[in-house]
Structure formats: structure tokens, C-alpha cells
Amino acid sequence: MSDRRRRGPTGSRSTIRKLNKMEKATVFVHRFDPSNDSRPHFEKHEVPYQKGMRVLDVLEHINNVEGRGLAYRWFCGVKRCGLCALSVNGKPALACWEEAQKEMVIEPLPNFDVIRDLVIDRSEVDEALVKEGNVLERGKPYEGFPEHLSHSDMGGAYPLMSCIDCLVCVGACPIMKPGVSDKFQGPYSVVQVAKLALDPRDKGNRGQELVNLGLEDCDECGECTKACPNSIDILEGAIKQSRRKYGIGKKSYAEEACHPRSDEEKRVASFMRAVENEG
Amino acid sequence: MKILETGAVVVGGGAGAAYAASKLKDARIDVMMLVKGFVGRSGCTIFASQLIVPLPPEAVGGQVRATDPKKNLERWVKMTYYLGDQEGQKDRLEFAKKWIAEMEELGLYVRRLGDGKLLTNRPEGNMVWAPTQGTSGRNVGDVLRKRVFHQGIDIREEVMATSVLKNKGRAVGVTAFDYRNGEFFVVRAKAVILATGIADYLAPRSTGTREQCANGRVMAYRAGCELYNLEMQLWHVSDTAHPAAWMRLHNYAGGLPDSDKSIRLVNSKGEVFFDQRAMYPSWSGSPYHLQLRRLVREVENGNAGFDGGYYASYSHLDVERFREHSYQVHFFEKMGIDIGKQNVECGITWHQNYGGVEHDPVTMQTGVPGLYVAGGVSGHASVFAACQTGALAAKAIAMSPSLAEAPELNDVQVEAERQRVEDLTRTDGDGKVPPQVKQMVRLTMRDKLGPVKNERLMLEGLRDIARIRQEVLPKMRLPTGTKVWNYDLVDALDVVDMLDYGELMFHSSLMRKESRGPFYREDYPYVDNEHWLRRTIVRLTDSRMETLTREVEMKYVRPEEKRADWFAVDY
Known about the structure:
Strand content of chain B: 15-25%
Helix content of chain A: 25-40%
Largest sheet of chain A: 5 strands, mixed
Radius of gyration of chain A: 22 Å
Oligomer: heterodimer
Largest interface: A-B, 76 and 83 residues
Strand content of chain A: 5-15%
Number of strands of chain A: 7
Number of helices of chain A: 13
Number of helices of chain B: 14
Shape of chain A: globular
Distance between the termini of chain B: 51 Å
Number of strands of chain B: 20
Low-confidence stretches of chain A: 9-13
Strand order of the largest sheet of chain A: 2-1-5-3-4
């Protein structure tokens, strides 16, 4: 077989020619190294753009081709690891799932401390769940495989199994903004506990866990459902179901404390941040 | 420099690593996990689509054919192309029955139908999904992640192990780099388990996740272990071609949930060139090497390219029923593709390796006392095989008398490794940065060790590796010297490992003068069972690479033909 046929149409030289002919996307990327920088700034890039490419493709170009040393997390590229969450034009999203646009501001996922550039500190949310247990507690001994169970028995637990722990819902949650609630661990934690609470095999004290995770402070605005990359109806399927099951109340807020901004407001705010802080 | 102490240190975070750590903890052994990514969230475990385990026929939905244990074993041995350990395969299938029960007991939901029967493929009835095609491995990873955290195991994520430490010929711990904090440290341990996975990101399109760069294999080699069959490396054929980020989006070509059909691959002329159900009805596992054969023919005939120009077709399926059971469908919909009417363009990806670190199949100990392997790094594919090998390693360690001894470090070795890592932190000069050098290595592996190999290309590949080492590596620099989450230093360490491993792969490939399974040499295009029912081995002897081969015992099953055209056989 000839080398040309063996290599196929994307040998490195033909790729570079293609990249140079392609349209460009203008991208502002949040940069912040707490060991070197007094404050965050934005770096501007012109990146080859092709319809259908993902935000992750843009980040990979900035690092692998331009060599910019940008810090960002990803492992799988196909919405399994749940570790590439960030913000695109003000909207919390997964880098691997979100389609790239011709003008973008890419920032870390909101509501989390930033470790560096686009990498956030997930530890508080992860540790809060570990502290509550977060494992199936069977009420009676396991009977052996396969146990007696029908699909309908799994009920509301089944849709919650699509959760990949990406925390995009936490990034979208207005209650998770600093200063609003010091108790709520975010919609993700509710999903994880509700997945057990609604599992017919589980007999754990999930009501108390949900109280410990601050479910009372959820305002039911629905931003989590809107943001979920796996289209989980977090509000109905986890939050309201849990409230009903365990009789957990709902705290009142002054409207300004948690009113979610529109997508356009978030997009404009992100561009203003980028332009004002371009490094 | 920080020195931590533990009984057993497990390097890795997938199914094999987590299962081994969990069993060690159950046995009251002090255990620490060092995970380059996140437990249960990175590595190839998360891509496992279905779980192929022996199932009680009365529990599966639909009409399935009875399982013949002898045929089952033959199928599993064929999946190793007759080079696997046959006794181990037999034990593995027995373990799988207990394993699926254990996973369900921990909370894994294995998809049921409305009547309570297990959702399965037809007519074999040997696959289940937990709960959808494309998510089973991810959910096994989740169950095991929760288990090891619940057990209170000392788990350190975003930490890269960089070398195995030895003293007086035995493993006494590892060195590690915590890239969140930029800290190099040592773990002193009475036993080390390497469980770093089966697939590696060694070509521009690969199934290995970001962090999988053959590190565990190279650590084992440098410690004195033998590596076997490195040339038996698969290519996924039906991975999605676009966008680039979705290279790991697989169009599963084997058994489908609640169906007796399989997807089809069509060439650029619209002709079907692969359909497992129609063309290989007795094959029920993953058909990657069979797809590859057919694709090579299409590329030879100009009807497809390895990077595109062929397509996965779903339109002959009951698409609505498929949609209910498939995670992948969301991606196609996101791209605006209606799989009931349109096809999905595919390209090949560098996939898992059916070789790895040589070991005792009963204890999983390598040739280095105190150093064990578990899961894919030992060459064993499948999620339950990863767990089984993890359990074997944990059991052997728990029963090992060496746990009573306090390991002593070799300070010279520790300092040498610290210096090696330090030397990679330079930021001056105009050299390439590590992600750019990684891409150079990946292009070399793709172009010189692609699906169609020959001696000329492989020798060129060795020269390319040498050139990168001699000309590019000395000037490689980091874009930033920060100690905070500096993944570029991880990339730099990966570059060195990828170069070493790439070189070993070329040598292993040159050794095997035949074609077999996924390994196709156009200069030796036949399967040679007379001379090559053997493993290739590479190892360090007196600090130099040595190559040799070793016969494989055909304990229960052996191929009938002595020699055959690679395109004609199904293994």
C-alpha cells in the first residue's frame, strides 16, 4: 500500500495548509496563575474555525499548536469524564460538548475557586458528598444476580443515572454565588442523593443528607435543568421529588439575591470582562 | 522532600486499580492510590459500552441460544488471537459471574426490561448494559469510585507516578509528582501495583484518554520487568471522524441491546463492507480486528481512507428502540444527524493493546518482587478482567510475607529521579513545548506503525524516534515555570515515556514476522501458527534492551490451520 494512501488525507503538511485557509474564531481566554498574577486577565487568540468544532478543539489548538501553556482539565472528549466544565460566553458548559463559536470568551466555571486559568477546585463539592456517604444502603440482604427488579421499579432514579458529575449545574446555580447561601452544596449534590433516595433498593436516611447538603436553600429557579448537558430535569426529577418525599421546606429569598440573569446578560458581561481585562 | 509510607501503593484510577485498592482495604492492608486523573472518571474504563459476562439464560429477555462453555472459552481465547493465557481465561469467566453480582450489590443498575428480564443482545444473550450502550464502564467506574472513597482509602488525584523505586532487587515504592501543587514526593511501600490501563494516547486519534501515555508500561520496563506482545495493538475502526474532540465517540459494531442486528460500515460508494451479524455470525465480542481487515481492503481499493471516507450506518435498525438504549445517539443529534436516514463518517483510532507487562497469572506479580500489575497494563482487556486481576494482585499481596518487612529506599535512585523531573522544567530557549513534541511522537506512531506495517516504515519510525530524542527533546521547554497545576510538566514526562514506549513497540513489531489479530504486516501477510504461537518480549538486561520470544501454551484450544492468509481467518 502506498504511503500516501496509508496516511490518508490528513498528513501534517496538508493539515497546516488547511488550517491556514480556514476561517478564524476570535477567542478571549481567562488566564490566572495565583503564584504569578495579582489578578486575572484575558488572552486573545485567533484560532482556525470550522463549523461543528467543539470548544475543546479550540483549547487544544491554543495549547498543542500555539504552545500557550493554558491550564484546563479534560480527559475523554466525549461527555463521560465530566471534568471539562467551564463557561463559554457566560454560559456554563462542557468544553467537549459545546460547539465553538466565531467569537468566544472562555472562562472558568462560575461559583468555584480557580486553581489556575480554567481549572477549578472541585474538592468542596466532592468532599461534601463523600462525607454524607453517597453509597447504596440496602434494606435487606442482596439476593444474587440478577435481583428481582423491573425497569419501572427504578422509576425516577433512572434518569438521574445520566449524571456525569460535571458540575455545570452548580456553575449555573444563582444560589451558589458567593454570599447567597453558606449551606447549599448545589444541584449536583441533590441529584446524587436523589438517585439513591429514588432507588427502590436503597434504605438510607437520605432526607437528613439532603438537609445537610442545604436543599432548603434551593430557590427552584430551574437554571440547573437548563444547563445540564445531559438534559436531566434536575428541578423536577431530583429537587422537587426530594422535597416531596422528605417534606423539606424552601427558604425565601429577596428576589435580588438569586435572580438568574438571562443568557444575553451573561454573554455581554463575559465580553465586557474580557475586553476590560485583556492582558 | 516528602516521604509517605503505606503498605501497598496502587498507581492508577480505573476499574483494576480501584478494585485492587478496595480488596486490599478489605484485607486491612494500608493502601494508597495515586491517580493521574480522577478515580473512575478517566482512563479507558469509562468507555466500556457493554459488559460481556456469562448470564443465566432464564434471566435474559428475548430468545437466546444456550451457552456452550467450551465454545465460550474458544471465543475468549480467539479474542487474544491464541496468544493469551488460556487457564486465566477460564478462571476469568468464572470470576465474571461473581463480579457482576458484586457490582449490582454495590448499586450498579443493569438494565432490565419491563418484565424484569435483563436487556441483552440476541441470539447470544451474553451482553448486558449498565444501563445504556456507551455508559456501562462509566457507571462501573462510578460505583467503584464511591466504594473506595467510602472505605476511607488514601486517594491522591492529579498525581503522576514517575518511577518505581527498587532496593536490593525488589520494589520499595514509587516517586510521584503532584501537579496540582508542583510537588515531587516519594511513597515508600511494601508492594506496588501498576494499574495504568490498556489504551494509550499514542496517535493523533486515539481512544486513550488525555493522561494515558504508556507511563505504567515504561515504569515497569525501567524497573526490570518484561513487556510482551506490544505489537498486538488494536485500531478502532468505527470511531466518529468529526469533530476532532469526538474521536473517541464509538459506533459500536458488535451486539446491540434488544436486537439481533449490528450496525453496518459502508464505503464511499455506499457499499456495505462490514456487518458483524451478517458476516461473522458466530463472533459475539468486539469485532475490531475483523473490521480492520475489511477496511484495509477498502483503503487498498480506494473506497475509503483511514481518516475518513467510510461511514457507520444505522438506518436498517429499529432506530427508536436503539435511541432508548444508546448514549451515543445524543451526539449524532447534536451534530444534526438523523441516524434513521443519514450515516456517520468514521476514522480509525489507536486503541488498546493486548500485550503489556509480563506477570504470573495467579499472583499478578511481575518479574520484580513486590511489583504487581492489574488490569489493562498487564494486557487483559474488559472491565471484569481488570477487576479480576486487581483481586488477584490484592490477594497475593495480602498473603505475602514481605509485608512484614520495612522497605528501605535507595537514596541515589530517588535523587536521580528527582533530578530527571527537575531537568524537564526548563523554560528558556526557543525549543518546542511538550504538547507540540507529543504531537510529533503521535504522528510518527500513526504514520510508521499504522494499521498496515512493513519493515521499511518501522525502521523509519525508529529513526524518527531517535531524531526526536536527539534533536528536539534536549531543547524542549515548558511555556511556564509555575508550580500551580502545571500540566505541561506532566506532558514533558509523558514525552519521554512515549518515546521510550514507541521505540519498544517498533522493536516488538519488527520481531513478529507474521500477521495476527490486529497486527498486519504487508511483508508477512499470513498467520503463521507453526512458528508464531509465541509472545514477543522486550526487557532491559544490563541496561540494554534485549528482545526474545517465548512459546505460548495451547492448554485447551489451538488453531486448526498452520498457516493462513490474514484476511481469511477471524482472529
